[in-house]
Amino acid sequence: MKRSVLATGSALLAGAGLVSGALAGGCTAGGGAAATVASLSGIGPITFATGKLDTGSYLPGLLTQWNAAHPRQRVTLIPLPDESDDQHAQMVANLQTRSSRYDVMSLDVIWTAEFAANGWLVPLSPRQFPLGSFLRPAVATARYQGRLYAVPFTSNAGLLYYRKDLLAAAGQRPPRTWAQLAADARTDSRRFLMGGYAGQFQSYEGLTVNFAEAVQSAGGSILSGNGTRVTLNSPPARAGLRFLVSGLRQGWIPRASLSWDEASSQRAFQRGKLVFLRNWPYVYGQASKRGTAVAGKFGVTSLPGPAGPGSSSLGGANLAISAFSRHQRTALAFIRFLTSLPSERRVLVNGSLPPVWARLYSSPSLVRRFPYLPVLQKAILSARPRPEIPNYNQLSLAISGAVHQALEGRKPVDATITGLSGDLRTIIRSG
Ligand code: GLC
To answer: Which of 202, 207, 209 to mutate to test the pocket of ligand 1 (most atoms within 8 A of CB)?
Structure first.
């Protein structure tokens, strides 16, 4: 199992002296204290720690631009692993030693509560950022207990990629329901001798996301909205898990996908070995590049559900300043630069990542270039956030472990949901 264990321990007194200036600024829950940020001190070179999976296409250009304009406050990239779990493990290990190695960190939206509760992040003043122009669900993921701890940078929602050339040859339309997806994936995988449908089914955060989407799409949930009650033990949750389990049993989900994450499932699709793929929007840009087996041959639509469009998990990344950073003022300026409208435009244009600036989704020239933008915006606005609780990592570990066993056919659907519900209750209670 690759997952790091939840970082426990009491708050580190907000990084001791390093943020005391910020806190002394009188920042109250809900923000409002410009002094919080204005009082940040420390100007000089900084580092930016971020996962490398989807950043290669836009980040180098932005860093060059920043460094050219700020020769005394240069930023150095610290590339972290592809998978969210591995990034988490590396960051937590670093922050637990109160290391100043990371100045600005790109945080998965699910880590805000844990990192804030441990005192690893500098609280920020909302007034310093154009939050009102950002997608609201993205902004919500950057707050913890009413206070802003990070700035939304990219949002994310799962989409269904499909081979439009193959669907046309088979006389099919993009599937809207699970039954259509299952039927088309089954027929097409036989007809074209390739995999039918896959998502991210390895035991890690990606599987938690795929499972949550199946449960939500069937009308269920894992926890109550405020994260205090387990709501998993329900017919929709069983239906969601059964959908995935039956795909593996019936063969329209290839068994190889039990070890696939974002990158490996993307590769399978890009090499022309898969008809349908659930993945994030960054795949659009990469799979469209000349030289892939599928450039110009695929389309994108919303995830299907039992009776019509399904529901995505809300993903994305927020930028935060480490409480142990020695150059917090520079870190703040760098975050303002990366989340500015021109930078966000480049994130979309060069990386096909979902920006957080709402207006970019309706720009006619961008919609011409990225025809799925309206579908994506809808998916983000209706996506479900994962629980905002400090021990989210532990919760997710239990979910992906149990679901993976069921997908492997080692435990029946009913027993999995019942057993997992009990485990989650224990975790919530101990949180
Ligand atoms: C993407 C999402 C992130 C999610 C991860 C799961 O990086 O943006 O929120 O946790 O995938 O693998």
So the answer is: 209
| Category of 251 on φ-ψ map: left (φ > 0), alpha (ψ -120 to 50) or beta | left
User: Residues 302, 181: one domain?
Assistant: yes
What's the one-letter identity of residue 328? Q
Which ligand 1 atom lies nearest to the CA of residue 261?
Answer: 12
Q: How confident is the model at residue 226 (pLDDT cuts 50, 70, 90)?
A: confident
Q: What pLDDT is recorded for position 115?
A: 98
Q: Are residues 249 and 130 in the same domain?
A: no
155-185: b (≥16 Cβ within 10 Å) or e? bbbbbbbbbbebbeeeebebbbbbeebbebb
200 with 223, same domain: the answer is yes
Residues 69-91: pLDDT tens digits? Answer: 999 999 999 999 999 999 999 99
> pTM, whole model, 2 decimals?
0.91
Integer CA distances (angstroms), 156 to 32, 130, 230, 338, 420, in order: 28, 19, 25, 17, 27
* Domain match, 366 and 420 both: no
> Backbone phi, then psi, for 340, in 5-degree steps?
-75, 160
**In a mutational test of the pocket of ligand 1, which residue from 280, 347, 392, 403 has the highest number of ligand atoms less than 8 Å from its CB?**
280
Whether residues 236 and 345 fall in one domain: no
Domain co-membership, 367 together with 393:
no
Q: Are residues 220 and 237 in the same domain?
A: yes
- Measured from the Cα of 53, ligand 1's closest atom is 7
Query: Per-residue pLDDT for 5 more than 90?
Result: no
Nearest CA to ligand 1 atom 1: 315
- The residues lining ligand 1, judged by C-beta closer than 6 Å to any ligand atom, are 84, 108-110, 156, 205-206, 209, 262, 280, 315-316
Domains in the chain: how many in total?
2
Q: What is the pLDDT of residue 20?
A: 29
Q: Which domain holds residue 70?
A: 2-156+316-382
Could you read off the pLDDT of 373-424 as tens digits, one per residue? Answer: 999 999 999 999 999 899 999 999 999 999 999 999 999 999 999 999 999 9
Residues 183 and 132 placed together within one structural domain of the fold? no
**Contact yes or no for 376/151 (Cβ under 8 A):** no
- Whether 59 shows a pLDDT value over 90: the answer reads yes
- Scan for tokens 């600036």, then name that residue: 357
What is the domain-level CATH number for residue 32?
3.40.190.10
